[in-house]
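hi! just following up on the protien thing from before. the input was this:
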Amino acid sequence: MNSGSSAVRRTREGVHHLRPDRTYFLYIGEMKALGLNPFLVPCLEEILGGPVDFVAVVPDLLLRYPEANLLVLNPVSRHWERKEGLRVNFRPPAGLFAKWVSRDETVIRLVECLLQTQETLFIHMFESRPEMTLIDGDRIRLLGPDPKVAHRLNNKLYQYRLAQDLGLPVPEGRCCTSLEEVLEAAQEFFRAGEEVFVSEAYSSAGSNSIFASCPEEILRRFSENQASYLVTRRIPHRFDPTVLGVVADEEVYLASVADQRMEGNRFRGSSFPTLLSEGTVEVIKEYTRRIARAMAREGYRGIFGCDYIVDHSGEVYFVEINARKQGTTLESTLTMLHRLPGHPSLPEMEFHAVTRGRLPDGLEEMSSTESELAWATYNVKPQRDVVVTGDLPPRSTERELFRRIYGDPSLGADYVVEEHLGAGIHQMAGGFVARCVAVGKRRSEVEESLVRAVEEVQFRFRPWTPPQRSVSGEDDPQ
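and the predicted 3d structure came back as:
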């Protein structure tokens, strides 16, 4: 099958190894979460009573792919290749990708084919989106949070008011309904010599948001007057902790507290275990449990995350909810696999939360301040258009790296480069060139290993200027 840009499994022909003795589910999302799917297989095999596998539908345009049934769907990348003869990786917003998938003829035929041989088709998504219209709730079911609830909870203004209602400390600020109101609110902080954080209602990893020190910076970034914005005081701080958890009917499991790596307002990766004190971690966990229970009361079931900042005096402030899987969900899952052998994984917990309305029994939370496994990640995302000039073939999988480091006490830190685009692939500004993951026994060694990984990636791309008649990143060629 050939859909979007290309469909790949060993050849460019795509999904052609569907076995009649297996039940399949669909994974829909970015490559970075592909490794979570094997953790769902045992859950489905238990309830279906037979072997289970999955087919992935991803937007990532890479030179090489892992051995799996996988469709690459990216009409913008396909449009580039047809018009300019260039292989350009375009990273679509989650909602746009869900829309592409929902109306793609190849995906629809695949769904119809699978439903001819199996009673139910489960869909697993990195982020639940209302634009995913394939799901009917009967034969096609979502293994994730309710899309409408998730979308409401991902609204930055909604989150800010929710945190205030729960009595959580938040940066001083205002929810605005126009750009004019944004400038008015920001001016109060500018007069005091302070910077502000301005975000549209929906923003992720620093997109659609800025730190600003004057009105001109706000006007250069935002132009839509009649829109919703959040404006808060920028608080100088030392740490940007993030919490990953699962919630079901006010039951809350918190898997990890990690330290985010921020460059300005842009998320670049995380490190574990956290450098925060145990006391601060407990405060953050308590805030997160309060938020998670409020999410559950609104009907949210599944994996989620919360971000905070810790200022120089140790005060913790709520920043945002991520009503979806986070970028380091796989790293936390692999840490649990070794530190808590036999324990339900995060995908398994989400499966229970969504299908049974509760979490599994006998759960145990890991320490986030002490760990015999340390890891760090870095997302290489250039802020201008680039072309990759050299290959980085995978040295091993991330799962193999965790197993090797944990299983051999004599080994030091090591790294893998995941989802590297490959030579000859062009990347539009702000998209992934690669994801670097370092694993070891001590965080200091892991950080050193991560630097080497990032340098290896950065050495293999250079700036690129697209043709003037280039395809806009906002285009939806379908």
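The chain has four domains: 6-143, 172-233, 237-347, 372-478.
Residues 152 and 158 are 7 Å apart (CA to CA).
cheers
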